Amino acid sequence: MASMYETNQVGKRQEISEKIFNVESDKTPFLSLVKKGPVPNQMLMSWQGFVFPNAPSTGIKDGVAATDPASIARVLVEGCAQHFRRQWGVTTLAELTNIAGVGRNEVGFQRLQAMTLLKRMIEQQLLSVDDCAVESGETPWTTRGVGSWISNSAQSVKPVDATLRNSAAAIYTGAVASLTEAAFRTMLQAAYGETKEPVSLDGFVGVDLKAVLDDFTQLYPTGTGTSQAKAIYNVAGVGEYQNKVEWLRFSVGDVRLHLNPFLAVTTSTGAASAYSPKSGYFLNMEMWEVAYLMKPANTNLSPDGSGTKGFIDAVLGLKCFNPRGQMKVYSNS
After folding, report:
1. What distance in Å separates the CA atoms of residue 147 and residue 327, rounded to the nearest whole number?
2. DSSP reduced 3-state for 325
3. Under a CB-based contact definition with an 8 Å cutoff, are residues 242 and 234 in contact?
4. φ, ψ for residue 84, nearest 5 deg
5. 317/125 Cα distance (integer angstroms)
6. Would you state the pLDDT for residue 2?
7. pTM higher than 0.85, yes or no?
8. Those residues with Cβ within 8 angstroms of residue 143's Cβ, 6 or more apart along the chain or in another chain
9. Is 160 helix (H, G, I), strand (E, B) or coil?
10. CB of 114 within 8 A of CB of 97?
11. Strand 171-172 and strand 327-329: pairing?
């Protein structure tokens, strides 16, 4: 009599783990760190800023009258809020079936994932290079991304006043592999020159840029020859290799690094651009604020016989009180 082999068996149940794995990041470090500001009452938001001018320190001759008064001028800064929305839905039959890791709570699962995805959508918009937009015709309200806020040139819509624009020396657009420690120090010195005090920045960086920063001070360049001596600064435990940097500390300031896959993405599709892994923003988080007209919330749609449906949405705008003293690496090579 022939033996029964496993490959000949019929009626077998499919083996599916009770765990469901998310294969893409749902971490949003910028949104987690940025301050939450007061609730605005308009989609077009505005605030004021000013910069102390350079002033001569020469003496005054005895008897000379004060006939040349001066004042510190304020400038208006404007930004736009944006409506974000992610829809979700579960058909009647999908709601009734029992799924591994979900049971009969497909509605709860899909609603939770929509909330997570909405946070990612907000993160990628806030870390974009998009300019703001005032709703007109086919153009919706759009909040200005970090990459546009800290630009050295004037934005197209509601441009930042020239006195508050970032220093060109604090922006790097060359090949990321050519970003040396000396070049990075020059950027920090430019940021220091804008604020006249040591800077404390949070760096949100793509994976390729992080690899370059990890190698800072790892190698001591020699004048001639092909060998380079290792600098023992990043000591790991016995039998452990360590090559990562979480803090960069210079005389003119400190930088704390955060890997982030959502900066400089193509916001019309959500896909990473050629700039995403090679770029980074180095921000003074005291200068940033997210203002929520409406915090993320779920709304169930009226039943129509096809199943349970709803959407998660939020309305918010990104404010930058002063772009000066911050840095940007924007590279696709």
Report:
1. 10
2. coil
3. yes
4. -110, 140
5. 10
6. 66
7. yes
8. 79, 80, 81, 82, 125, 126, 130, 132, 316, 317, 318
9. coil
10. no
11. parallel
Q: Please report the pLDDT score of residue 73 as a whole number.
A: 83
pLDDT at 18: 66
How many residues in the chain?
A: 333
Give kind and range of the element (H or E) at residue 207. helix 207-214
Query: How far is the C-alpha of 219 from the C-alpha of 254, rounded, in Å?
Result: 21
> What is the Cα–Cα distance from 312 to 173, expressed in whole angstroms?
37
pLDDT beneath 50, residues of the chain: none
Helix (H) or strand (E) holding 115: helix 106-126
Q: Quickly tell me which residue has 């960086």 as its tokens.
A: 205
Who's near 51: CB < 8 A, 6+ residues apart?
Answer: 163, 164, 324
Element (H, E) at 167: none
DSSP symbols for 222-281: -SSSS--EEP--S---TT------SEEEETTEEEEEEE-TTTT-BTTTTB--TTTTT-EE
